[in-house]
Structure formats: structure tokens, C-alpha cells
Amino acid sequence: MKTYNKNKNKFRENLCIIPARKGSKGIKNKNIISFCGKPLIQHTFDTAKKIKNEFDILVSTDSEKIRKLALKNKFYFLGSRPKFLSGDRVETKDVLKYELKRIEKLKKKKYKNILLLQATCPFRNPKMIFLSLRKINTKIFDSVISVSNVEANHPLRMKVFKSKYLINFIKQKKENMKPRQSLPKVYLRSGSIYLFKRNVLLKTNSIVGKKCYGVILKGKETINIDSKEQLDYLKSKYEN
């Protein structure tokens, strides 16, 4: 069985890994569900093809359908992901370490930077990835992640239930009723871009280092599909 593209002999110092297991609790077959005329993961594959001059592209999956798509797009696939790395509670960093070890053994070389692209983010601008690569190559930063402004969903407005009472998530002396424009800017990981040095993953067991640069994204580039309701809304918005 063909498992990877043998014509890719050029060694690049950057590796892009696209993890996509077949199971999903929120949306059945989420990574291959049709979105804007193609499987959801194909949108990420299309972005990956635009950065292949700088990155080797490797797909990690336990899905036969995704394996076929990966090979059709001429990406590396080094064999099906084992069951112990395909469950609901498996952390992405463990999958990345597993695949990194496999491809470095194959190549007999070590990569410098690792890029994680999640299949649930269909809209990416490759320029943001190249910007991230320039930042991490300055040696000032050890990681780069994409973020978006939380806007009205500010933590100073958030509540939690404690017993039968609703209380502030962040302890405050009094209720903060300031308008959104007056609140300090807070950002949330968007899930679109995670770029980090190899040693951040292997030595700190993380994909976000202590010297992290944030790429601020806006609009549809911040979309990370996670629920059926969100998928249905985005289909009605973008497929029409």
C-alpha cells in the first residue's frame, strides 16, 4: 500500500502536520463533511499546497478516506495513526510528536520548525503563515499562534454558577458595566495557525513557547468549526 509521495526528496527545514482523525462527537465525519463544495479538510489541503515550497506536508489520520485525499494531494502519509492516538481525549501534541519521530526517521534529518494546521479552519490566508515563519526565524520568538479579539465575549463580562447563584468568573469588587470599547483588549486562540520550534514540542511538551508571537486574525479567517449548529450557520452564510 502506498503511504507517501516518494518524489518528495528535497529536505525542507519546516514541517507542516495536518492531524485529522475519523471520529468526532460533535459532528459525524466532521473532517470530510461537505463544506462550500468540497470536503472540509480539503480547504486546509488547498492552503497547504500554497506553502509547500517552504514546508513538507504530512497528514496524520486513521481514516481511509482522508488517507486517499492526502495522497491525491501528494502529501506525506506514513501509515495509519494507531488507536491509542485516535481517541477523543488524545492531545494533539502527542500526535505531533509521534508523526515527527516517524518522518525524521524516514528522512534521517531533524526539522527546525513545526506548523500545525487544523482541518476545522477552512479559511486561511497563506500570507499569515509566511508572516509567522518570518517571525519565528528572527530567533526572537520560539512560537507563533493566531488569535482573534474576543470582542463582546470579554472575560470581565463572564459568569459562572456557584451553587444556586450566578457570580463573576473574574473576581471584581463591583459589577463591571463599562462599554466594550473601554475594556482592555483580550484575545483568544483562533486555532488557525500554530507554528513552533521543534525544541518547544520535544523539550517543553507544548506547542506554545514562552516567547510567543501573536498573529491577529479577523473575519472568516478566525472560523474554527466545532459544532453542528455552527456548521449549519456557516453553510447557510457561505454556500449561498
Describe this structure in words.
The chain has helices at 40-49, 64-72, 92-107, 126-136, 198-204, 228-238; strands at residues 14-19, 34-35, 38-39, 55-60, 113-116, 143-149, 159-162, 165-168, 187-197, 212-216. The protein is of the alpha/beta class. Residues 1-7 have low confidence and may be disordered.
Structure summarized in a few sentences:
With 240 residues, the protein is an alpha/beta fold. It contains six helices and ten strands.
Keywords:
240 residues, alpha/beta, Spore Coat Polysaccharide Biosynthesis Protein SpsA, Chain A, 2 domains, six-stranded mixed β-sheet, 6 helices, 10 strands, disordered N terminus
Set down the secondary structure blueprint.
Layout: E1 14-19, E2 34-35, E3 38-39, H1 40-49, E4 55-60, H2 64-72, H3 92-107, E5 113-116, H4 126-136, E6 143-149, E7 159-162, E8 165-168, E9 187-197, H5 198-204, E10 212-216, H6 228-238
Parallel strand pairs: 1-4, 1-5, 6-10
Antiparallel strand pairs: 2-3, 5-9, 6-9, 7-8
Beta-sheet strand percentage? 15-25%
The domain tally reads 2
On the 0 to 100 scale, the average pLDDT is 92
CATH architecture of the largest domain: Alpha-Beta Complex
What's the CATH first level of the largest domain?
Alpha Beta
Structural class category:
alpha/beta
Low-confidence stretches: 1-7
Q: Largest sheet at a glance?
A: 6 strands, mixed
Relative helix content: 25-40%
Compute the number of helices: 6
Query: Gap between N and C termini, in Å?
Result: 40 Å
CATH superfamily of the largest domain: Spore Coat Polysaccharide Biosynthesis Protein SpsA, Chain A
Neighbour order of strands in the largest sheet:
4-1-5-9-6-10
Number of strands: 10
The CATH topology name of the largest domain reads Spore Coat Polysaccharide Biosynthesis Protein SpsA, Chain A
The radius of gyration is 19 Å
Apparent shape: globular
Order of helices and strands: EEEHEHHEHEEEEHEH
